[in-house]
Every structure is written in structure tokens, then in C-alpha cells.
Specification:
- The complex is a heterodimer.
- Chain A folds into 4 domains: 5-208, Pyruvate-ferredoxin Oxidoreductase, domain 3; 228-415, Rossmann fold; 427-490, no CATH class; 506-605, Rossmann fold, CATH 3.40.50.
- Helix content of chain A is 36%, strand content 18%.
- Chain A has helices at residues 18-32, 83-89, 108-113, 136-144, 151-155, 158-169, 175-184, 189-208, 233-248, 263-270, 285-297, 308-324, 351-356, 375-389, 399-403, 472-487, 515-527, 547-551, 566-574, 593-605; strands at residues 5-13, 35-41, 56-64, 77-80, 98-102, 130-134, 226-232, 252-256, 278-281, 301-306, 328-334, 365-368, 392-398, 405-409, 455-457, 506-511, 532-537, 539-541, 556-561, 581-584.
- In chain A, the strands form 4 sheets. A 7-stranded mixed beta sheet of chain A has the order 9-8-10-11-13-12-18, sandwiched between helices. Chain A has a 6-stranded mixed beta sheet with strand order 2-3-1-4-5-6, with helices on both faces.
- In chain A, helix 4 crosses helix 8 (189-208) and helix 6 (158-169) crosses helix 8.
- The longest helix of chain A is centred in the first third of the chain and has 20 residues, at 189-208.
- Chain A is globular and about 85 Å long.
- Chain B is of the alpha/beta class.
- Chain B folds into 2 domains: 12-224 and 273-317, Rossmann fold; 236-271, no CATH class.
- Chain B is built from 11 helices and 14 strands.
- In chain B, helix 3 packs across helix 4 (108-117).
- The longest helix of chain B has 15 residues, at 29-43.
- The chains are: A alpha/beta, B alpha/beta.
- Chains A and B meet through helix 1, strand 7, helix 9, strand 9 and helix 11 of A and strand 2, helix 2, helix 4, helix 10 and helix 11 of B.
- Strand 7 of chain A pairs antiparallel with strand 14 of chain B, so a sheet runs across the interface.
Chain lengths: 607, 339
């Protein structure tokens, strides 16, 4: 069977090693040249009770030769390590889905614990599916018996036995993964050997039961030539910041506090102290951003990374950065809210917080990333705008793309755009809030620069001098200057584009990290000949200058987002005469292509 | 002053900014800023490499009045901003002006953590035991029972002792000075800048409007000699108008004795060691209260310890050379070619 793309989901207890098995498979397929999109789905508890649905951790991968824009709606292959993993996913399995499961794990107790009333193998509830019920536990035990390992270490190899079955199904060579074990368990060759045997035995098992399922092969994808690597959105964000800092040339500072799902940006950056990055794990979210503001005042490219609840705490300090007009990159990896909400799930519900969540008239730049790999470009762009326009920039990513991975074409530093730092050396013509006539940007002077001593602060300052001022007309003028400065960012960003030749019926509008899924739905309808177009926004505030022009071409506009309509409401405020319909899901999960298609079809037919 | 070729030393006045000071007439802050400007001149610091950071409150207007780099931030967060400044550019001399509300209440978390980390900066804690800028509410250092606008029936909570809090947080430099003693203030600010790491100077500052004379029993001409023990490293802990009182250890407690009475001689009096790592005696000194004890003034603790900023930059240096460039790093590990 030759397929363009296949969705595989690994599901098991949090301790079953599903994320690792998923990552190894992803890496192997990427080397083979497939398009890949991944989506880890895990509970916020580190180890919820084993064998219960609440404790199930998942890792979904979509691999293919073309058209992989998202991790996929539903799996073609489900790896379910126990009854709970099966129970957690069975409602979302399409007919003919292949289920690989551990027959040994289906004991009377575990079946009940998972919430099945009867054994699913015996009550016909799996009859729609192709089931590979391998005795994974007992075969793993037998194959490793001669190594003299304790039971716990042996049980940890079950995931590799299972992965072996999958490698057989997809005709995957084992070499790269075998080499990985040698490297990972350098210090413990017995464990390396155990993992290798388990993988090999699993693969052999697949071959021996060939009669059950025919194997699947996926041709390599067609990609722009170049060097690629698999990367998650958080890692790409970190790298984009490193690249931007080198272009700015004043050093990179990260002030942050750990928070799910943003912490991996922080983890990644700590690996790159060789590059001179100064990293400060603060006592709280507030100190994270305040230290970054201090570092920005001192002349560094300063960054703080967080998620929604952390953004709430940083609010007052963001206002200070607005008032003092200091460059600052604030990354919000959105998760489900409100309050603590769903820490490990995805949502786009912090948009209005980013736009408006401060006291006073407090304009700043808001941008968003679309895919794991382009987090690199948007982190770079956030830093460029922050420095060139002397403003805080909020970069919104979301759990879905931050933890998801895809191949990224590696860019050369020399090919990335330069970043112009607003320097000043002419003391006579300088004042702390003297502005560039065109951009309204003030200069960025580092302490240590002789004869440029000056004071800034959160109190309203006088135009040009920055001296504290309570003069009513001055306050009005400064409010307007700060707002105009942000508006003028639109002069130096690209125009918005849309995809849909000759379409004028339905424009689908998205923003941020749901890009791939929405695009997937639109492309499928376009292939069916539907009159539908798609535009996805990365520049949220200010919007690209031709936004209204694009909207005015279409009879119907539907805004799709993982919240209750925050972008739609924002657009209504900007363009009161345009009618925006909405499609919203707020369930902590990404969109599904089939739901989007159904909605778009309904709109296309309703005209 | 014109620079005639050589290095021109700055004087205290050179550190005054062009902004008119707006503290109330008679406010203790005037003396403190004079002492700071004198200390900067005595230290030979340059204007451009000195940064004053502040939070919110009367004292936090401090940076506006200094002709150095300055940042008036938000309530309680000055320590966090100053930490970022120092890490970003360790060459700068970083000073934080903060009040008892700013550091002990809203900014308490940043206060204790910046002390614990030992970031190299000078923290001046203006302790007037009242909220001045919001017009007279009690503060976390107000004594129990004080009647203020927000406590018309007297407060029902005990105050922080900044010295004990700081030493408990791992402070390596703690000093206390009354705002009435410009000479001691200047000396202590010089010592605090020379100390590498976070130096905390608690200034007993008088708010003439909302809490006038709160420190009067310690600072008045009539009582100060008997109620202040001015500590000098290496010298005996002697005080009193007649310079005949001193401190000795009595079991696990300090005791005030009179030299020449009950067989006590000068050699029995404790000698101050600000540099000993053992903080027991420093905490006892910092917590002394009237009327039984004098209030300890001067540098109570001054111990060398690794600073956060220095350690951070050392760690960065230790990682140098892992990759030669970002391009090399981007291409490392699992990459694959698409042709």
C-alpha cells in the first residue's frame, strides 16, 4: 500500500516512553525525506495514576510525501500500550485504523480500570479495525531474559519493541535508531543492548505476522533543496532569538521563569552560553520581565518568555516598556485558560490580553508564528521590530506549534536581514525622547556612553526631553506619539497575501499556529473546485496596510480561531463596515480538518 | 569644571542633575542624596558608568536628581530591573533607591532574592516606617500599634526588621545609618560600593510630614550617644555619652555593661568583626532594640562572597568555543540534505 500521508498516534501511560518512541520515529522519517508534523498531547500531571485514562500521554505524527500541513485529525495507526490508552482514543479512530496494542496488558483489572465494561477483544468493539495484538510484555521479557536486567529496566524496553513493529510496517531501516541507543546509553552498554534487541525483536515480530496487515510505504516528499533538520517551535524560537541578537550585535539577555509550555525555549537557550547569552532564572514572572527591561535599558537585546498566566503577571512591566520605549521581546506560548486552565493544551485565547491587557493607552506590536519551523523567522522578526522601532513586541505562539515539530530548512546567518540599531553619536542633536521624523523612533543609548547620561521612567515624560511632566497637552501629545509610532510599523512590514486564485466567495481568515490545519482544509476544498480562499495573519498589530483591500474582495469572510472570537472582534473594531463570521473551538485541542471543511461547505452552500 | 588634558576628578556637585528636587522641605532624603553624591566623588566614579534605579515612592524619585544614568521603574520591582542592568553590563556601578514599602511590602520577593543571589549592587533602603507618597498609611516596618490614616485604631501587626530579614536571606553586606549623620552615611556608601556583591544600607530616614521624629529617640542630640552604637570593624563595641558603655556576651545573649563597674574593663568589651562569616553576632547586633540596647549603626556585616553577575559571566566564558559560530551550531546534529 502506497500512501501520500499517514497519521500515527503513540499512546500509553506517562511513563511508557511514548514521547521518545514518537520522536525517534519522527527523526527516522525526516531523514528519509518525508514531510512531518507532530503533536505531543500529554497530561499536566507528571505521572498520573498508571492504567487510567487521565494518565494517558500521546504523541501524534503525520508523515507524508505531500500535503502535510498539520499532525492530522485522526490516526491511521494507533499504538495503544494498555486498555486505558485504547479507551482514551477509541472514539477518534476512523474505520480501518490499524491498532497496535499489548495483548498482555489487557487483564481483567486493567480493563476495568480503563473504564471498559467488557474486554474489547471479546465484545466485537474492535471489529472495524485492523488489530495487531502483540504479546509485547511477554516477548520483551523473553527476548531480554539473558541480559540479567531487573524487571523495571526490561519493562522500559516495551516501547522499543512496539516501535520495532512500526518500523516493520513502514519498511523503516533500523540503523539510525540503533546508533542512537549506542550514543544515548554510552555509559550503560547493557541498556543500549536491551533497547537494540527490543527494537529488532519487535521488527521481526512484525515480519512474522505479516499476514495481518500489509505494510505501508510513503515516498519521500518534494522539498526545496537545502539542508534541513527537525525542529520544534520552541527550539526554533530560541534559535531565531540567537540569530537576531547576533544581527543586533549588543548581546542577548533572557529573563524568565519556568512555565508550561514555554520552558523549552529557556532550556534551549541555556545550551548556548557559548554564544554569550546571559540567562537569568528569576524569582517570578515579574522579575523575569523586569530584569529584561533592565538589560534592555543597559543595551542588550532583551527577551522574556512565558505563557498566559505569566503574561498576566508581567502586565504592569510591559506598560513600563511601552512608556520608556525600550526594545523588548515577550514570547507568550499560549495554553488553555483562563487561570491555570489547561497548562499542556493548546489555545489562541491570549490575543486580546496581548492587544489590550494593560492599564492606560498602551500600544505595542503583536505578531504570531504559524508553524514550528517558522517560529525561527517570527522570533527574528519580533526582535527586528523591537529594536528598529524601540518598542515591546509580543510574539504569540501556541502549545500546538511550540511542542510540535517539522523539518526546517536551515538558513545561513549571512542570508538573514540586517537589523538597524537606532544609535546616536551626535550629542548636540540628541535628547532622550527626540524622534526620527519618519518612524517616530527614539534613540537607544547604552549606559556607559559618555555625556549621554539621562533618566527614564514610568512617569509621563515631556516630549523630546523625557523630563517628568504633568502638563495636560504634553500627555495628550505623548499618547498620540506612542500610538503613531506603533502604527508606522505597518510602513515597514510586508503586505498581507492570500491563497485562492479567482476566488471571491468565501475568504477563510486565520492567525497564528492553526495555519497548517486551516490551510489543509482550504486546499482540499480548492482541489474539489470550491470558490474559497485563505489568508493567515502573522502581523496582528499593526495589521498589514492592504488588509481591508483583501477583505473587500470577498462576499463572505469567516475567521477561524481557538477562542471565542478574539481576532474576529478585533477586526470588527478596525473595519466596522465589514461582516465577519466566526468558527471557534475552545477545547484545548487544535482544529480538525474535517470540522473546518464541514463549516466551510456549509457557508459556501448558504449563500 | 574644564578638563585641562589630565583626568579631571569629579566633585559631589557634578552628580546633581538639572532637575529641581521636589521632596518636602526638611525631608531626610536631602541629606542622603548629598551623602551619595559625596561618596561617588570620593570613590572617583564616572557619571556615565553609574546607574541609579528606583521603584516607586518618595525616595524612588532619586534617579531624576542624579546626573548619571537613571531608571525610575515600577513599584517594588527596582531590584529586578537593577539585576538586569548589572548582568547586562557588569562594568556599571548599579545603585538602587528604595523605601520600606517598596522593598519590604510590594517588592519583598525581589528584595530577598536579590540578596540571596548576591548581585553586585548597592541598595539604599530609606526606612521611614510610613507610606509617604500615598499620604500616610502604615508600612511593613511601622511599629505595632501605630495610628495612621489606614490604622485609625492602631496597627495589629508586627514590623519587619530589615537587618534580620536581610541577614536571614544571606546578606553579605548590611549597614545601618541615621539620616542625620552625613559623615557616617558617606563612609558607609563608600564601603558599600567597594564591597563586591549586594550591599544593603538601611537609612533611618525621617518623614517630616507623616511620621515626623519616628527615629528621634535614636537620633536627637541629647539621646543619640546613649542610643547608638556606631560599629567600626576591629574596634570595641563602646558607646554612651561618657564612652563608658559596652557590649559583652552573657551566655547566648548580648548585655550592656558599664566600663569600670562590677570589675568590667575595656578589654572585656566585644570587638566588632564585620568580616566573619558566622552571622550569629551580626544578627544579634542588627536586632538590638531600645530601651535596653543601643541601635547598631555602621557596617554590621561585610563578608566577601562570589557575586551572581561575576559567576554568570565566568560560566559564559567557560562555555566559549563549543561552536565557532551560529551557522556551525545550526548545522550540528541530525541534519539532512534535500537535493
Amino acid at each position: 500500500m502506497n500512501k501520500e500521508s499517514v497519521v500515527i498516534k503513540f499512546a500509553g501511560d506517562s511513563g511508557d516512553g511514548m514521547q521518545l518512541a514518537g520522536s525517534l520515529f519522527t527523526d527516522a522519517r525526516a531523514m528519509w525525506g518525508n514531510q512531518i508534523a507532530t503533536f505531543p498531547d500529554y497530561p499536566s500531571e507528571i505521572r498520573a495514576p498508571a492504567g487510567t485514562v487521565a494518565g494517558i500521554s500521546g504523541f501524534q505524527i503525520n508523515i507524508g510525501s505531500k500535503g502535510v500541513n498539520s499532525p492530522g485529525d485522526a490516526p491511521d495507526v494507533l499504538v495503544a500500550m494498555n486498555p486505558a490508552a485504547l479507551k482514551a482514543n477509541i472514539h477518534n479512530l476512523p474505520p480501518a485504523c490499524t491498532i497496535i496494542t499489548d495483548r498482555d496488558a489487557f487483564t481483567k483489572n486493567s480493563i476495568e480500570k480503563a473504564g471498559f465494561k467488557t474486554d474489547p477483544f471479546e465484545d466485537n468493539s474492535l471489529s472495524d479495525f485492523k488489530v495487531i495484538a502483540a504479546p509485547i510484555t511477554s516477548l520483551t521479557k523473553k527476548s531480554l531474559a539473558h541480559l540479567g536486567l531487573d524487571n523495571k529496566s526490561i519493562m522500559r524496553c516495551k516501547n522499543m519493541f512496539t516501535l520495532g513493529i512500526l518500523y516493520w510496517l513502514f519498511g523503516e531501516p533500523l540503523d539510525q535508531t540503533l546508533a542512537f541507543f549506542d550514543h544515548k546509553f554510552k555509559k550503560d552498554p547493557t541498556i543500549a543492548e536491551a533497547n537494540k534487541i527490543a527494537l529488532q525483536t519487535g521488527c521481526n515480530y512484525g515480519e512474522n505476522v505479516d499476514a495481518v496487515v500489509s505494510s505501508m510505504t510513503i515516498a519521500p516528499a518534494k522539498k526545496t533543496p537545502g539542508t534541513y533538520r527537525n525542529i520544534t517551535g520552541n527550539q526554533a524560537t530560541a534559535w531565531g532569538l540567537l540569530a537576531a541578537a547576533e544581527k543586533v550585535g549588543r548581546g542577548l539577555f533572557l529573563g524568565t521563569y519556568p512555565i508550561t509550555p514555554a520552558t523549552d525555549i529557556f532550556h534551549e537557550l541555556t545550551k548556548h552560553k557559548w554564544n554569550g547569552i546571559k540567562i537569568f532564572q528569576a524569582e517570578d514572572e515579574i522579575a523575569g520581565i523586569c530584569s529584561a527591561i533592565g538589560a534592555s535599558f543597559a543595551g542588550n537585546l532583551a527577551v522574556t518568555t512565558t505563557s498566559g498566566p505569566g503574561m498576566a503577571l508581567k502586565t504592569e512591566a510591559i506598560g513600563l516598556a511601552v512608556m520608556t520605549e525600550l526594545p523588548l521581546v515577550i514570547v507568550n506560548v499560549q495554553r488553555g485558560g483562563p487561570s491555570t486552565g489547561l497548562p499542556t493544551k493548546t489555545e489562541q485565547s491570549d490575543l486580546q490580553q496581548a492587544l489590550y491587557g494593560r492599564n492606560g493607552e498602551s500600544p505595542l506590536v503583536v505578531i504570531s508564528a504559524s508553524t514550528p519551523a517558522d517560529c525561527f523567522d517570527w522570533a527574528f522578526e519580533a526582535a527586528r521590530i523591537a529594536v528598529e522601532h524601540m518598542t515591546p513586541v509580543i510574539l504569540l505562539t501556541e502549545s500546538y506549534i511550540a511542542n510540535g515539530a517539522e523539518p526546517m530548512k536551515i538558513q545561513k546567518m549571512a542570508d538573514l536581514p540586517k537589523i538597524d540599531v537606532p544609535n546616536e553619536s551626535d550629542r548636540e542633536n540628541w535628547a532622550p525622547y527626540k524622534r526620527d521624523a519618519e518612524t517616530l523612533v527614539r534613540k537607544w543609548i547604552e549606559p556607559g556612553t559618555k555625556d549621554f547620561q539621562h533618566r527614564i521612567g514610568g512617569l509621563e515624560g515631556e516630549d523630546v526631553t523625557g523630563n517628568v511632566s504633568y502638563v495636560p497637552e504634553n500627555h495628550g501629545k505623548m499618547i498620540k506619539l506612542r500610538a503613531d509610532k506603533i502604527k508606522r510599523v505597518a510602513d515597514r512590514i510586508p503586505l498581507q497575501r492570500y491563497k485562492g486564485k479567482n476566488a471571491d466567495d468565501l475568504l477563510v481568515v486565520g492567525w497564528g499556529g492553526q495555519f497548517g490545519i486551516v490551510l489543509g482544509a482550504v486546499l482540499r476544498l480548492q482541489e474539489e473546485g470550491k470558490n474559497i480562499a485563505f489568508t493567515s495573519f502573522n502581523y496582528i498589530h499593526p495589521l498589514p496596510k492592504n488588509t481591508e483591500e483583501i477583505f473587500s474582495k470577498f462576499k463572505q469572510i469567516v475567521v477561524c480561531e481557538l477562542n471565542n472570537g478574539q481576532f474576529a472582534n478585533y477586526l470588527r473594531g478596525q473595519f466596522p463596515h465589514i461582516k465577519f463570521k466566526q468558527y471557534n473551538r475552545v477545547e484545548g485541542l487544535p482544529f480538525k480538518i474535517k470540522d473546518l471543511k464541514a463549516k466551510f461547505n456549509e457557508l459556501l452552500e448558504s449563500k | 569644571m574644564e578638563n585641562l588634558g589630565g583626568t579631571c576628578a569629579l566633585v559631589a556637585k557634578d552628580f546633581e542633575s538639572d532637575q529641581a528636587i521636589k521632596w518636602c522641605p526638611g525631608c531626610g532624603d536631602y541629606v542622603i542624596i548629598k551623602a551619595v553624591q559625596k561618596a561617588l566623588a570620593d570613590l572617583g566614579l564616572s557619571k556615565e558608568e553609574t546607574v541609579f534605579v528606583a521603584g516607586i515612592g518618595c525616595s524612588s524619585r532619586f534617579p531624576y536628581y542624579m546626573d548619571t544614568y537613571g531608571f525610575h521603574t515600577i513599584h517594588g520591582r527596582g531590584a529586578a530591573v537593577a539585576t538586569g542592568v548589572k548582568i547586562a553590563n557588569p562594568k556599571l556601578s548599579v545603585w538602587l533607591a528604595s523605601g520600606d514599602g517598596d522593598s519590604m511590602a510590594i517588592g519583598g520577593n525581589h528584595f530577598i532574592h536579590s540578596i540571596r543571589r548576591n548581585v553586585d549592587m548597592n541598595v539604599i533602603l530609606f526606612n521611614n516606617e510610613i507610606y509617604g507618597l500615598t499620604k500616610g498609611q502604615y508600612s511593613p516596618t511601622s511599629k505595632r500599634g501605630i495610628v495612621t490614616k489606614s490604622s485609625p485604631h492602631g496597627t495589629i501587626e508586627d514590623p519587619f526588621s530589615p537587618g534580620e530579614l536581610a541577614l536571614g536571606s544571606g546578606s553579605n553586606f548590611f549597614a545601618r545609618v541615621p539620616d542625620s549623620n552625613i559623615k557616617l552615611l558617606t563612609e558607609v556608601f563608600v564601603a558599600s560600593e567597594k564591597h563586591r556583591g549586594l550591599s544593603l544600607v538601611e537609612v533611618l530616614q525621617n518623614c517630616v510630614i507623616f511620621n515626623d521624629k519616628v527615629h528621634e529617640h535614636i537620633t536627637s542630640k541629647e539621646t543619640r550617644d546613649d542610643n547608638q552604637l556606631i560599629l567600626q570593624h576591629g574596634e570595641a563595641m563602646i558607646f554612651g555619652k561618657e564612652k563608658n558603655k559596652g557590649l559583652v556576651l552573657d551566655g547566648l545573649s548580648l548585655k550592656v555593661v558599664t566600663i569600670g563597674e562590677n570589675g568590667v574593663s575595656e578589654s572585656d568589651i566585644l570587638v566588632h568583626d564585620a568580616t566573619t562569616e558566622n552571622k550569629t553576632l551580626h544578627i544579634m547586633l542588627a536586632s538590638m532594640k531600645g530601651p535596653d540596647f543601643p541601635i547598631a549603626m555602621g557596617v554590621i556585616r561585610n563578608v566577601a562572597a562570589p557575586t551572581y553577575d561575576n559567576s554568570l559571566h565566568e560560566q559564559i566564558k567557560s562555555q566559549a568555543g563549543k561552536f565557532s559560530s551560529l551557522d556551525e551550531m545550526f548545522m550540528s546534529g541530525n541534519v539532512f540534505e534535500v537535493k
